[in-house]
Write a structure and sequence with these properties.
By secondary structure, the chain is of the alpha+beta class. It folds into 4 domains: about 5-95, 2-Layer Sandwich (Uridine Diphospho-n-acetylenolpyruvylglucosamine Reductase, domain 2), CATH 3.30.43.10; about 100-220, Uridine Diphospho-n-acetylenolpyruvylglucosamine Reductase, domain 3; about 220-335, 2-Layer Sandwich (Alpha-Beta Plaits); about 345-435, Alpha-Beta Plaits. The chain is about 35% helix and about 20% strand. The protein has helices spanning about 5-15, 25, 50-65, 120-125, 145-150, 155-160, 165, 195-200, 235-245, 260-270, 300-310, 325-335, 335-345, 360-375, 405, 410-425, 440-445, 450-460, and strands at about 20, 45, 70, 90-95, 100-105, 110-115, 130, 165-175, 180, 210-215, 215-220, 220-230, 250-260, 280-290, 315-320, 345-355, 380-385, 390-395. It has a 5-stranded antiparallel sheet. A hairpin with a 4-residue loop joins strand 5 (about 100-105) and strand 6. Helix 10 crosses helix 13 (about 335-345). The two termini are about 40 Å apart.
Length: about 475
């Protein structure tokens, strides 16, 4: 019996029939990433049911030198949870570890295992009059472990911060199978650096997140959702500053999208309707929110915001959602942008960030520069203007062949966009991680000292390179 067969026999004995399979048909759905760009192979698919089982499995992998590719909901955007084509890695599913171990209303904390789906946590919190303040389009499939591992963002980062800000404690299995238990939430702890922050955003390359203690907030008692028509992206920036000054902590989200994005969604989503009657080059989606104590003040605040913005000449037209159903319809127009674009043909998607104060100028400069450099393309920027992160998509010229165009001109386009971002002192990955998709660009553009530190940490925690190999940590350039 060779070593791989011996490993599979021991893993099967450990995990049982529900916990391990090498059946090609059962593994197939999990071997391709959400965007369909990467397809790999795996030695087997493992699904432990507890941290203790996972720790034993990782020790077994370390003994046999079997690489491990952790996977949550497989909804990532950078190929970070897809194994390579060698078939030597164990694909590790955390989906069976889906227990909310504790939901403490008094402490406003929830301890969730890695496989808990975001929407499930949100519903459990809502049932107790609380909420988890992070949301995104994939909330029905994204898992807590994946959100922690990629330091996910979403539409509420402006007020509440990214996933990093929501994590009060963490549990993880390290490369040698030891369990790092940092689940206790402490306001003050000066026993050295905050190790949980080292693991958040590490994409499973430094440790496998098994559970997290997450902060909860009082449930919203009232929200006001506004849709605004604007002339330019600079008008959107001025409106953001105006809204922040007037609304303060009530400002929950501030999203922008160009006319092309709205038109694409209206054409793609059955029954979708434009919120405004006229045509506007840019749109802003603004959400104000309040708990029970501030609920009565919110409707007049929303009206005051629009009236003052109108008087200041910041908006071309605007409306306030008249019901919760209409508010959700407004957000659907925002959430369906990526799906609508995908239906229209090939595109290169870039999840980038630049300093918040520079974002409007970056968009105004980089959109036409991209279209002039790559004739026939359409460049679009939409998303979270308030936190400096937008999704910069470049649509292929009409008739481009999907799969072929991305590997040819698409690669050149991405290099151009990332060069622009770097000149603006920004980040080539704002909320979706590096994965395998951006590994070469991080090696090309990343600060050498920062990359050296990242490699040193990886070497210290995973000396055999078994945790999610080929992701996040680029090898040194020759």
């Amino acid at each position: 019996m060779d070593d791989r067969a011996r490993f599979l026999e021991q893993a099967a004995a450990l995990l049982g029939e529900r916990g391990l399979t090498a059946d090609a048909g059962l593994m197939a759905p999990w071997l391709t990433d959400w965007r369909g760009r990467y397809t790999g192979a795996a030695l087997a698919l493992a699904a432990p049911a507890s941290t203790a089982e996972l720790a034993q499995l990782v020790r077994l992998c370390a003994q046999h030198r079997v690489p491990i590719v952790p996977q949550g909901g497989n909804s990532g955007m950078s190929g970070g949870a897809t194994p390579d084509a060698s078939g030597s890695a164990l694909l590790l599913s955390l989906r069976r570890m889906n227990t909310i171990r504790r939901l403490d209303c008094n402490a406003r904390e929830a301890v969730c295992e890695a496989g808990v789906v975001l929407q499930v946590l949100q519903e459990a919190a809502a049932a107790q009059g609380l909420r988890f303040p992070l949301t995104l389009g994939g909330r029905g499939s994204a898992t807590i472990g994946g959100l922690v591992a990629t330091n996910a963002g979403g539409t509420q980062v402006l007020r509440h911060g990214s996933m990093r800000a929501q994590v009060l404690g963490l549990e993880a299995v390290l490369a040698d199978g030891s369990v790092l238990d940092l689940l206790t939430a402490l306001k003050k702890d000066n026993r050295g650096p905050d190790l949980k922050q080292l693991l958040i955003g590490s994409e499973g390359t430094l440790g496998i997140v098994t559970a997290a203690t997450l902060r909860l907030l009082p449930a919203l008692a009232e929200r006001a959702v506004l849709w605004v028509g604007l002339g330019t992206i600079h008008d959107a920036r001025r409106l953001l500053l105006h809204t922040q000054a007037l609304a303060g902590e009530a400002l929950e989200g501030f999203e922008v999208l160009p006319r092309h994005c709205l038109d694409a969604v209206l054409a793609h989503v059955p029954g979708a309707r434009a919120p405004l009657g006229g045509t506007h080059e840019w749109h802003a989606l603004i959400e104000l929110a309040a708990d029970a104590e501030q609920a009565q003040a919110l409707p007049p605040l929303a009206r005051q915001l629009l009236e003052s913005a109108w008087e200041a000449g910041l908006v071309e037209d605007a409306t306030i959602a008249a019901s919760e159903a209409q508010a959700q319809a407004f957000w659907t127009l925002r959430d369906e942008i990526s799906a609508a674009e995908r239906a229209f043909g090939p595109a290169m998607q870039h999840d980038i960030a630049v300093p918040v104060a520079c974002m409007a100028e970056f968009i105004a400069e980089t959109v036409p520069a991209t279209e002039q450099r790559f004739l026939g393309t359409t460049a679009l920027a939409f998303g979270h203007l308030g936190d400096g992160n937008v999704h910069f998509h470049v649509l292929a010229p009409p008739g481009a062949e999907r799969g072929v165009w991305e590997r040819s001109e698409g690669k050149e386009i991405s290099a151009f966009v990332y060069d622009c971002v770097t000149r603006w002192q920004g980040s080539i990955s704002a909320e979706h991680g590096i994965g395998q998709m951006k590994l070469a660009e991080l090696a090309r553009l990343g600060d050498p000292v920062r990359l050296a530190v990242l490699r040193a940490v990886k070497q210290a925690l995973d000396p055999h390179g078994l945790l999610n190999p080929g992701k996040l940590v680029p090898p040194p350039l020759p």
